[in-house]
Amino acid sequence: MITIKNGKKDLEMRFGIGQLDAIDKALGFKVQDRVELGEGLEKLVPKLESGNAIAIAKIIKATTRGQQHSPKNDEELEGILVDLIKEHGSLKKFGEIVLEDMGKNVLTQDVINNSKALEAKEI
Q1: pLDDT above 70: residue 39
Q2: Global pTM?
Q3: What pLDDT was estimated at residue 121?
Q4: What DSSP string describes the chain?
Q5: Phi and psi (nearest 5°) for 98?
Q6: Nearest to 101 by CA among 58, 55, 63, 54
Q7: What pLDDT, on the 0 to 100 scale, is given for residue 32?
Q8: CA 15, CA 94: separation in Å to the nearest integer?
């Protein structure tokens, strides 16, 4: 489990069904502003590997939702991202930590393994 801070308050990044659904929607895309296609979980691994700030902010928002001190606005998300960069050196390094944790979670390990299999095929 990964703990992050929103100011001085601890938050747990959770990867349950509700959080994964929120990530899928947040990283998915809309077609002609009408149809929402999930598929965001397919983009999760590359976004974390690259340290994409927008994607990581969306992932933080999704994985901390429902918690008392979850980020409520962009300023709080920015503060969390800045703190993560200070703590880990980069968002890319933080993304690696998240991926490692997800590889241990029964609900997310297939996402990680499938991504690794695709990378191996491309090489």
Answers
A1: no
A2: 0.85
A3: 72
A4: -EEEEETTEEEEE--SHHHHHHHHHHSSEEETTTEEE--HHHHHHHHHHHT-HHHHHHHHHHHTTTSTT---SHHHHHHHHHHHHHHHSSHHHHHHHHHHHHHHSTTTHHHHHHHHHHHHHH-
A5: -65, -45
A6: 63
A7: 61
A8: 16
